[in-house]
User: Which sequence fits this backbone?
């Protein structure tokens, strides 16, 4: 019996560098790191890392989100959100686990539950 591999199992990460500017919707079936500028919604079926030079305006949905840059909009994570030192989030978030490091700025409401956060059943 063989086990099917998903993009999350492989550990590949797509990277959008600091010079990249995206307008509209962005979808990734695997892990993603954004260091550029995004104006629109992002859906990641894996881990999403928002680098320290990143600026996002829009809604974010992912399995896990690690924020070091700036986000203006909502974050919905099925598992965990980490707001690292120096990060800025202006908007609401929903996740199972929330980690806020000293020096992170969070202006919004948070909702945590034992269920997958993205699952509105």
Assistant:
């Amino acid at each position: 019996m063989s086990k099917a591999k998903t993009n999350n199992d492989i550990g590949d990460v797509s990277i959008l560098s600091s010079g990249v500017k995206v307008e509209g919707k962005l979808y990734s079936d695997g892990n993603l790191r954004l260091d550029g500028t995004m104006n629109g919604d992002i859906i990641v079926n894996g881990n999403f890392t928002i680098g320290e030079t990143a600026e996002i305006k829009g809604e974010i949905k992912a399995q896990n989100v690690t924020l070091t840059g700036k986000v203006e909009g909502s974050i919905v994570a099925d598992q965990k959100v980490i707001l690292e030192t120096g990060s800025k989030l202006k908007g609401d978030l929903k996740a199972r686990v929330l980690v806020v490091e000293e020096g992170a700025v969070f202006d919004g409401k948070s909702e945590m539950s034992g269920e997958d956060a993205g699952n509105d059943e």
Notes: The two ends are 33 Å apart (CA to CA). The first strand starts at residue 13 and ends at 16. The CA atoms of residues 67 and 75 lie 10 Å apart. Helices lie at 7-10.
